[in-house]
Prior knowledge:
Blueprint: E1 2-4, E2 7-11, E3 14-17, H1 21-32, E4 37-40, E5 56-57, H2 64-78, H3 80-84, E6 95-99, H4 102-116, E7 124-126, H5 128-134, E8 145-149, E9 153-154, H6 157-170, E10 174-176, E11 181-187, E12 190-196, E13 199-202, E14 205-208, H7 214-222, E15 229-240, E16 248-251, E17 257-261, E18 266-270, H8 286-299, E19 308-318, E20 325-327, E21 336-340, H9 346-363, H10 377-380
Parallel strand pairs: 2-13, 3-4, 3-14, 4-10, 6-16, 14-21
Antiparallel strand pairs: 1-2, 5-9, 6-8, 7-8, 11-12, 12-13, 15-18, 15-19, 16-17, 17-18, 20-21
Helix pairs in contact: 1-6, 1-9, 2-9
Bound molecules: flavin-adenine dinucleotide.
Flavin-adenine dinucleotide (FAD) binds at residues 17-23, 40-43, 47-50, 52-56, 180-181, 209-213, 217, 233, 235, 314-317, 340, 342, 344-348, 350.
Amino acid sequence: MAEGHGLITTQADVVVIGAGIVGLATAYYLSRRGFNVAVLEKGYVGSGSSTRNAGRYRVHFGNRENTEFAIRAIKKLESLSSELGWNGVFERSGYLWLIRSERVLKLYEELNNEIWKPLGVPVEILSTDEIRERFPYINTQGIIGAAFGPQDGAFHHDYIVMGYYERALDLGVHIYEYSEAKSIGIESNRVVNVSSNNVFIRTKAVVFAAGAWTGELMKSMLNIEVPIKPLRREIGITEPVRPIINTYVIDTERSFLYVGQTMRGEILGSIELEGVEGFLPYGNTLNWLSTWAREVIKLIPALRNIRVMRVWSGYYEMTPDNSHIMGRSEDWPEGIYVVSGFSGHGFMFGPLAAELLAKYIATGEVDPLMKPFLPTRFKTGNLIRERLII
Length: 390
Ligand SMILES: Cc1cc2nc3c(=O)[nH]c(=O)nc-3n(C[C@H](O)[C@H](O)[C@H](O)COP(=O)(O)OP(=O)(O)OC[C@H]3O[C@@H](n4cnc5c(N)ncnc54)[C@H](O)[C@@H]3O)c2cc1C
């Protein structure tokens, strides 16, 4: 490593762009396979969506490919405390999807019979009487049923991010913070280097794990079209209170209102108002806060008078089919890879996606679970349309 005029010059087998859950986990699994890895992060570790999310996981998705991926991803996620030596604070409190119309009830029944039951993760379809009995705090007015997924749960994102960060450092991964990747050198259709504002790295491979920024970066650096767009999402948390909510409640037909309670007792959640794509400034709107508060209290009256302590926002990284993108396309320069575009469920999918991508880079083997999510699907038209995004 050489330093001069404030610019560090070094080399690495692989450079990962982005130090969120996906980039850190990718660096860690690549390093475990013997690669010398460097990570460039334009802010600080975890400054993107990976520390701005709701910390929830589920195995229930709207198609077979995502559900199969989720089942393996959640096994991986739940095993991370022992792998990383940091307590991920896992809790399987379930997801309760409230349903207000026959059309949506039919959809959940179909998904249950055709995908979830055959894959061994059935939900319980509940009547309103059963909802009242098991979740007495819910105002069931207008609700005709629910789907309860007992396999789903919660984690604490900060500890998992820090776990990967620490273990990656232990393995010798170089993580450059406040180092914004600016350009990639290509010679004879192969990657030869990556430059940031303060580091120049000779390398043969680059992994784009830059979350919501990935689409824009790949376009500006390489003129490669990877359809990933940022969508700002707001979220809030209250002061801690006694246990009131014993699951994660999602009102599927009321602007996707979601609310749960953390182990510390805070009420956490959001409501999805109409989103505008683009890098809107991090921040919150009074309209979002008052709508969320009003709708939560309507649904769970026991939550009135609890004080909101903190609100924030982050970007979902949306793709046209709401499913993630991983791997590479043959027409890209040799050594360019992507793992991004998780469309709102990237923390729970990130560790497995990173592990599979590392295997692919090391061996060239496309795992069957990864295959449907290759970037080439946007050319072949084999989209993995995901309906159950929250
Ligand atoms: C409100 C909200 C709630 C959510 N809830 C959940 C949930 O309950 N469960 C779940 O699984 N997921 C959830 N998500 C989604 C999840 O947070 C993301 O999918 C996941 O964190 C994506 O991880 P990432 O590493 O790809 O991206 P990020 O964490 O965004 O990391 C990308 C990093 O790349 C860096 N970067 C960008 N450009 C450059 C550059 N040029 N050079 C160097 N670095 C660069 C950024 O600074 C950033 O740190 C939620 C997201 C939000 C916003």
